[in-house]
Amino acid sequence: MSDIVTFGETMLRLSPPDSERLEDADEFEVRAAGAESNVAIAANRLGADAVWTSKVPETPLGRRVVGELRSHGIETDVVWSHRGRQGTYYLEQGGTPRGNNVIYDRENTAVSTAAAREFDLDPIRNARVFFTTGITPALSSTLRDTTANLLKAAQQGGTTTAFDFNYRNKLWSPSEAKETLTRLFPGIDVLVIAARDARTVLGFEDDPRQLAHRLGSQYDFTTVIVTRGSEGAVGWHDNVVHDQPAYETDTVDPIGTGDAFTGAFIARRLDGDDVPTALEYAAATAALKRTIPGDVALVTADEVETVVSEQAEDISR
């Protein structure tokens, strides 16, 4: 039995070095990048036995993705496809005022045709946690059904279901996202959502503490985590809201910060931590991720422990 099984697309990320413009780049760094695999890796780095499952093209690029994920220590359980392509995205990084620019190239990918019947559902039914995100059902109508069916299978097996709302405006509109994702809510135990997404998609203008309580009460979640960027996060559980500030960090690469946070939170909850403690470790992991290039939180448990301990010492002074 695995601690956590995640499902979703992992792309190849291509980015010019040194904040060069895409239109002028002569070379690209290539890394595997996907919210669900990022969460699996972060959880694994903090001690959870993690599996990433997906549908992947039987091509050199598909094998590159699977090989890289395996190199990070997680198990991969994939359906190999001879149809469809490997999704990619291009990232141009720039400082203020230019900012970052992301260009997706993920049409007609193998994963967009993935149906629940193609997968062995026993690993999901037998896992302690099943995790996916709102990115996955945004990719195709087929994946909307698949996401719902996998969440249902997990709950039928007694598996805790965790879901990151993860709205992407380059994939669908707020109204489309609201219609689809709220239909999934009955199949979700633990919800992670950015305050900005709750405003944009759900129309909730509450402050984060009120928002966490409102979501938990209205949709009968077990746990709700509302992230609020540089201000940290709040967690609602057992009708109590807990505040967690963000830890100070130098930002080398912000991509994947939220995934690092979520993976660490799940891992620590699986290890028996209460919600406030798990939030501390999640915030520390997110801070460390921002110092690391790429989407993946290549942290160690000892590094995370050090950040948490140092923060506690600062507070006690």
TrEMBL record:
The keyword Transport does not apply. Residues 1-294 form the Carbohydrate kinase PfkB domain. It comes from the Archaea. Keywords: Kinase, Transferase. The keyword Metal-binding does not apply. Gene3D superfamilies: 3.40.1190.20. GO terms for molecular function: kinase activity. It holds the Pfam family PfkB. Signal peptide: none annotated. Belongs to the carbohydrate kinase PfkB family. This is 2-keto-3-deoxygluconate kinase. It comes from Natrinema salifodinae. The lineage of its organism: Archaea, Methanobacteriati, Methanobacteriota, Stenosarchaea group, Halobacteria.
